[in-house]
Amino acid sequence: MLRTFTISILLLFFLFSCKSQTDKEMTKHAYTNDLINETSPYLLQHAHNPVDWHAWNDETLELAKKENKLIIISIGYAACHWCHVMEHESFEDVDVAKVMNDNFINIKIDREERPDIDQVYMSAVQLMTGQGGWPLNCITLPDGRPIYGGTYFPKDNWMQLLTKLAELYKSDPEKTIEYAESLTEGVKNSELITLNTDTAVFTKSDIETAIENWKSKMDFKLGGNNFAPKFPMPTNYDFLLRYAYQTENKELLEYTNTTLTQMAYGGIYDQIGGGFARYSVDEKWHVPHFEKMLYDNGQLVSLYSNAYLATKNELYKEIVEETLAFVERELMNDSYGFYSSLDADSLDAHGELEEGAFYVWTKDELKELLNDDYKLFKEYYNVNSYGFWEKENYVLIRNESDTTISEKYNLDLTELKSKVKSWKKTLLKERSKKERPRLDDKTLTSWNALMLKGYIDAYRVFRNEHYKEMALKNAHFLIQNQLREDGGLNHNYKNGKSTINGYLEDYATLIDAFISLYEITLDENWLNTAKQLADYSFDHFYDVKSNLFFFTSDEDKALIARKMEIHDNVIPASNSIMAKNLFKLSLYYANTHYEKTSKQMLNNVKSEAIEYSSNYANWLQLMTDYAGGYYEIAVSGKDALKKINEINKEYIPNKLIAGASKESNIPLMQDRYSKDETLIYICVNSACQLPQEEVSKALTQVNKHF
After folding, report:
1. Which CB contacts under 8 angstroms, 24+ apart, belong to 259-265?
2. How far apart are CA 241 and CA 373, in angstroms?
């Protein structure tokens, strides 16, 4: 049925297209629409389009029904380059606006504020076209059921499409309803996961098969996938690092280190200011899509911290330090919450909005700024054909290590590092004179939780007290502003206001972060709050039929479909994070319901995770926890935190930490306190070996390998 429906939609497109404030503020602009009353930077960017944009709300949806008009749902985000392109080409054009205003109710949506709506209409577009992305443009019936859509449309194609669809709806509305019914059914059934009633068994051979299925997509020379564009995919490489280390797989360990090194050397990493862009458009990680997203950088800090612990590669430590410096400098508010992103576009020297203008350099600029050091600088950062981008611009990229460069140019390694530090300082100062990329200054709970986890992991590995301090300040910000009195979370924070009922991603990521915060502080309030959020999630998101969690709360207004997030992507699926959370909480609290749910969730996706492994990396982390030895390390006594810090000097991916310097009511810690000594208990499935006082002796009881 779905195949027939998809063909019908393609035929429709073939047949019907050629082959889409205040009074003072309003007087400055020729046009002002309803978006002027919104707080989202993305929506505000469109507030002065001639298109009569509306926000998604009950009033707008009722208006579409009242006027019996098709709806254009246009979804994007503030840092999206192609969203800006389509706005300039189409949404700022009065002729396009006339077609849209005369025939449609036009709704603009910030996908970061409303990932639930984005999820539904992204599914529709992927069913129709086989691909997705942003801007996402979907045309629907007045009741929101989709009839056609796509991503970026050139102006002429967009106008032709809209004209034909408007004509079709007037001349043959039954046909559009028929398409909508089929497509909506497809959206409801896409990624539908049913209960797997087979016995839940996870083995080493399952994971080996998953890895073999994955290898065909790996670029062993330059890292990442063997095709462009290349995304960082932190969860994928965190899992592969863990698997390679635990199985002593030299090929995979080399591949993972190649990936991390090439990303760190590439233009996708801001060589001057730190922090990662969203992806590279080429295979060598060189030319990025220049927007910088909080969620990428939070997860990449965690990844590089873990990679340093496993390899002691100093490059990874530098990446963590520089990325966190960037985040604090450019993405942090005065209350220690983190903003969402920096735009890909900024003004160039001619005052034109250009992608990457803030980050690129010309030879003349570099010669003038660096003087005698320019010759060495151009070799270090490839100001040559390897680093050339377009026009006269270069995107800085490395392809040799500091050691190689120092030997090649007969420089002391310390002297080279000093020069590099000086170059970065000089160029960062010069770059600060440029027009900065636009900032998306909304604060999202889920993305903040990922950044919080990054700070926690950086502290755990590098023992920098500043990282711990920042983690605690951000955690308190989230508790004070995003946690409601009823125990639920809000998703968004902007201009001092907390809004939008939280999604599963908010709960899953914050539970994960709070468990990790407990592990480095031993403050049980964080662990208890994590448990309370998990219980709230069961009350409002859980599906008893599948034993999985819906993305939206049962308190939210219904969309055309209530979806579940299953596939791990640039951010892991909220269900995979929740399954891991419940696995850990089941051990802390001896909660069999949590453990049973976690195992069933994993069992539901087992076959897909093995076959399509690169889309299930976080699920595979949990599968590895079940298939191999997973250790509960409980430390009790006055020196508990000190001994835990020693334990954390070792890369042990198959563990959780519990600890207390006094009596504790947490089941994993009960009856273990002694005022005279600090004891370390190594346990598997709540069965413990003899406690030890010395960390070195305790760790002999841990098998870090698989």
Report:
1. 259/223, 259/224, 260/223, 260/303, 260/304, 260/307, 260/316, 261/223, 261/313, 261/315, 262/222, 262/223, 262/224, 263/223, 263/224, 263/232, 264/304, 264/315, 264/316, 264/319, 265/397, 265/398, 265/399
2. 37
What is the value of pTM for the model shown?
A: 0.93
Q: For residue 378, what are the contacts with CB-CB under 8 A and spacing of at least 6? A: 363, 366, 384
Helix (H, G, I), strand (E, B) or coil at 280: strand
Q: Which two tokens stand for residue 237?
A: 């490489």
Residues contacting 503, CB < 8 A, separation 6+: 115, 116, 446, 491, 551, 552, 553, 574
Strands 679-684 and 631-636: antiparallel
Q: Which two tokens stand for residue 44?
A: 């505000």
> In sequence order, which residues have a C-beta less than 8 Å from that of residue 322 and are 6 or more positions away?
273, 274, 275
Structure tokens at 410: 């007969």
* Beta bridge partners of residue 269, listed in sequence order: 276
Type of residue at 528: N
Measured CA to CA, the distance from residue 165 to residue 182 in angstroms comes to 17
Cβ(137)–Cβ(20) below 8 Å: yes
- Distant-in-sequence contacts of 528-536, Cβ < 8 A, 24+ apart: 529/479, 529/483, 530/581, 530/585, 531/585, 531/588, 531/589, 532/487, 533/487, 533/489, 533/507, 534/507, 534/578, 534/581, 534/582, 534/585, 534/594, 536/487, 536/488, 536/507
Q: How far apart are CA 160 and CA 186, in angstroms?
A: 26
Q: Are 656 and 587 in contact (CB under 8 A)?
A: yes
Q: Please give the Cα distance from 694 to 533 (Å, whole number).
A: 35
Q: What is the pLDDT of residues 521-561, one digit of tens each?
A: 999 999 999 999 999 999 999 999 999 999 999 999 999 99
338: Cβ–Cβ under 8 A, 6 or more apart, which residues?
294, 298, 327, 331, 332, 443, 447, 448, 451, 474
> Which pair of structure tokens corresponds to residue 240?
């592969």
What pLDDT digit, counting tens, does each position of 223-269 carry? Answer: 999 999 999 999 999 999 999 999 999 999 999 999 999 999 999 99
Of 155, 40, 170, the closest CA to residue 98 belongs to 155
- SS3 for 396? coil
